[in-house]
Amino acid sequence: MLTGVILAAGEANRMGELKQLLEWERENTILGKTIDNLLAAEIVDEEIKVVIGAQKKRVEKYLQKKYLSELKSGIIKIIENDDYKRGMMSSVKAALYELSQDNQYLLFTLADKPFIGPEIYKEFYQKCLEVKSDIFLPEYQGQKGHPVLIKNCLREEALKLKGEGGLRNLFAVFPDKIFHYSSDQPEITVDLDLKKDYQKYKENNYKLRVLKD
């Protein structure tokens, strides 16, 4: 079984405002598009955990309105991380609690990954199952990307980790357990951290393109 995790607790300081709820395509948001793409992939057979923190009441209200049926059915679950200021690792840990005993893999991605489409999620998960990796780490031209898949057997070790660096802490402890998957999809490395980048994508009808300063 697969549990999806979308890390959406950050303050988005470099953006200057909460980027999770910025407009993305018609009547959608950056976070909404990321969730929609993972839902459309139809690979999560347990639940999608959306970890929230900064402005959590505002984000939760948005999620409850847009995904009412998915929340009621249990396919989406909101996880509150009140320790979000301590770094991404706190959100990773928040997602690792209350997992089904049948859970086999966890898929981690970030809230600001609206370019990662359903087919990418499908491809990576199928490849992960094929190679039976403990940690499936996709890369584009040598740059680490998302989604990252981790076998549930590493859950207890991940809960022991300290620091702010998110899953990089786990990579450092178990480098021999990583399957580095070379992808030709630049989408997996694109973050929406800066307002200038967001504006360029918005002006380009939310299409991916190489950004130049």
UniProtKB/TrEMBL annotation:
<feature type="domain" description="MobA-like NTP transferase">
    <location>
        <begin position="4"/>
        <end position="172"/>
    </location>
</feature>
<dbReference type="InterPro" id="IPR029044">
    <property type="entry name" value="Nucleotide-diphossugar_trans"/>
</dbReference>
<dbReference type="GO" id="GO:0016779">
    <property type="term" value="F:nucleotidyltransferase activity"/>
</dbReference>
<keyword id="KW-0808">Transferase</keyword>
<dbReference type="InterPro" id="IPR025877">
    <property type="entry name" value="MobA-like_NTP_Trfase"/>
</dbReference>
<protein>
    <submittedName>
        <fullName>Molybdenum cofactor cytidylyltransferase</fullName>
    </submittedName>
</protein>
<dbReference type="Pfam" id="PF12804">
    <property type="entry name" value="NTP_transf_3"/>
</dbReference>
<keyword id="KW-0548">Nucleotidyltransferase</keyword>
